[in-house]
Amino acid sequence: MNGSSRQHGRSSSSVRDAKVEEKPVVHEDEDEKPLLDNKKDIFEKITAYEYEEARNMDPAKAVELYHTILEKFEENAVEVLAMKHGFESNDPNRMLSLRMEGLNYLTSLRTINRLLKIRLKIVRDEEETTRKDVDSEQYLLQNLLYEAAYIQSQVAAAQDYVRMDEKIDLISVDQFYKDAPPNVAKADVTKIDPHHLRIARLEYEFLQRQHLTNECARLESEKGINIKKIKDKQVKIDGVRPLLKEVLKATLPLQNFFGLDISAKKIANDFERHLPSPLYILFVQSEAYQKSAEANHNFIIRIGGDIEAAKELGVAQEEIEDESDSERNLDADAEISERRSLKKRSSIGMSLDDNRKRTFQKHPLWIEWIVKWKGTESLTIQFYYLINLKIITVKSRVHRETTDGTTSTLISGNSDNVLMQLFPNDYGQESPNPTNNFIFNKFGISSFSTYQKETGKPYVWAQKICGLEFPELGGISGEGYEVKSKMSVSCRNIEGTLKQIRKRLVSQSKLWSQMKALETRNIQIPSAAKDFFPQKNSTTFVSWEGIDYETYRANKYTKQLIVSEGVSFKDMFYKAVLQRGRAKMTALVSIKMDFPAVAPVFCIQLDIDGQLRNGTSDGSIREIEREINVHAPEEFAEWSDVLISLQLHKLMMCCDIILETDFTLGEAIGLSEFIREKFTSRSTTGMLMINHN
Asked: Coiled-coil annotation: which residues (predicted)?
């Protein structure tokens, strides 16, 4: 064997010598570039040849050949091993031959393996190309179906088109011939021509409406006369008021002697008397409800504000009304004309900011409700009346005494939003009075919500319990807007509103207790729900903290929820952090004010050594979000009061699953500390199923 090595060495040196002798002359600037280009061409040819071989090969025959060579390689290895241990004669030439033969077998196995992998890649690339073509055709088909549906809808709209005259509710044909005058009915023509009949009926309708217009003008004239009579009687009644005051003052010793409290009640009633009409209606109905058998000491009504400012405001409004009446009746008077021009000049001279502040001016008096529940917890609601906008606004505060030093975002940040969406779609962001939009446009006010910090929120339910109904809020009859009694409107709505407020306070109290438990990393799970979870979770619950809307929207993986309006700035936002080894899962949670009617929404991101995975790009994370946001609320419907804790516990379980099964799914390399602790029945389709035992 040494001789053969020497012979091989001599032959190698002779080859090198021959190559040196045959080396062509190369210019200095060319260096080895032709040699490199030659290697590149050889590599490309070899690669192309391998791809062509892989494309044309039969996988079944290749696998069969692979097993055949493998068997021969095994026989070769057995024979070499036998010669090594002396079971057979140790022939050097035979040993060398067996070794070379084994290397050839090994090279063939590697070649077949490489060709099979290349073929697998080719098949996958062709499959991806075919899938893209199918998807393109599918999208094209969907577009065509959409266009067809749109065209069908347009055809249906054209077929269902109704002319303007068809919307008029005309009297019947028999009634028309009975009531219409002969010169309008024209029976000899209209009975044989439907078109002329339609025109005649419309002409008769026009005559009837003209008659109703004249009748309305006559009634308006009578109304003016009656209003003048009422004002004359009001003047006489106002003259009696000072006399009554003198009588009360003169009889004060008599009242004290008999223990009567007429004067004290009068002073107390001064606040009520100077309340604006909507707040007065609210006060009367609130007192009536408080004194009813259903109310109790947990509901308190108060009147607050500056009584002197309210009196001055009332006097000023009376002067303005008197001046407007005088201007209508005595427009030729020079003094009144001068006063009107001064008033206009003073209004024009005001700055834009002053006009805006004047627009949102509140009445000096306000009504306060105190709704108590659950011991020391209570809700204070203050009702204000905006004089110029003629609407009611609301401010609220939650009072909650705690024995420890912990606080919750529910108290500090969302106390003013506790009444938001008390009824469906009632966010209190815009004025319910449609006439206010013209005032806002006049003074360049873009949105009512900009001034809500000073004025409060104009909830629709607040307008109703104060007897205010606007066209959007009240009933619309066929003959126009149906005017209803303000007291009746308030009475119908005040009891239902208070019940809804108490229901909201109970749910908010339970939510607050759940937030306090989560801030101390205490996940509360009902005993009956423990069967839904494994006995042990390797993922730990690290922290729970409140965040604001800007922090929430700063994360890119929450953009889809914001764009789809799944969350909004009106919600409460929190951040939960879970951890297992080097993996950290962050869940951004948005909670609606009407929890638990609407389940919280979790937005999840998994961080493993700086590698971020979230629902925007990772199917497994989207499956977890679907499990937490969709299936968990349905699964834990009977424990809705602690739904957030149950969702967090399920999120910990899902975090364990995705970390322990990543290597099985082929999505990531299994890390050493993520040991399989849970039995999964399937790991390739949908969410992983867990055997809790």
From this structure: none
Question: What dihedral angle (degrees, nearest 10) is formed by the CA atoms of 180, 183, 184, 186?
Answer: 100
Scan for tokens 């030659």, then name that residue: 38
Q: 242 is written with which tokens?
A: 């000072």
Q: How far apart are CA 115 and CA 61, in angstroms?
A: 12
What backbone phi and psi angles, to 5 degrees, belong to 541? -90, 110
Determine how many CB atoms are found less than 10 A away from the CB of residue 435: 12
Question: pLDDT tens digits, residue range 136-167?
Answer: 999 999 999 999 999 999 999 888 877 777 77
Instruction: Report d(CA 102, CA 77) in Å as an integer.
Output: 7
Output the CA torsion sign for 561, 564, 570, 571.
negative
H-type helices in 349-485, by residue range? 352-359, 409-412, 436-442, 452-455, 460-465
Residue type, 316: A
What integer is the mean pLDDT of 298-310? 85
Helices and strands: H and E segment counts in the chain = 24, 13
Q: What are the structure tokens assigned to 475, written together?
A: 């009933």
Tokens of 158: 């054209």
CB 615 within 8 A of CB 559: no
End-to-end CA gap in the chain: 66
Give the residues across from 608 on adjacent strands: 583, 611
Mean of the per-residue pLDDT values of the chain: 77
Instruction: Report the distance separating Cα 349 and Cα 377, nearest Å.
Output: 49
285 token code pair? 């109905």
Of 501 and 24, more confident = 501
Question: Tokens representing 217?
Answer: 């003008």
DSSP state of 120: H
Helix, strand, coil share (%) of the chain residues, nearest 5: 60, 10, 25
Tokens of 39: 């290697």
Say what the pTM is: 0.49
Q: What angle do CA 42, 44, 50 make, to 5 degrees?
A: 100
Band (pLDDT 50/70/90 cuts) for residue 402 is: low
Residue 648 and residue 576 in contact, taking contact as beta carbons nearer than 8 Å: yes
Query: From the CB of residue 462, how many other CB atoms can be counted at a distance below 10 Å?
Result: 27
Question: Using the 8-state DSSP alphabet, how is residue 229 labeled?
Answer: H
H or E segment at 602? strand 601-608
109 near 131, Cβ under 8 Å? no
- What is residue 672's DSSP assignment? T
Cβ atoms within 10 Å, residue 490 = 25
Query: Strands (DSSP E) along 215-313, which ranges?
Result: 299-305
Give residue for tokens 């109905």.
Answer: 285
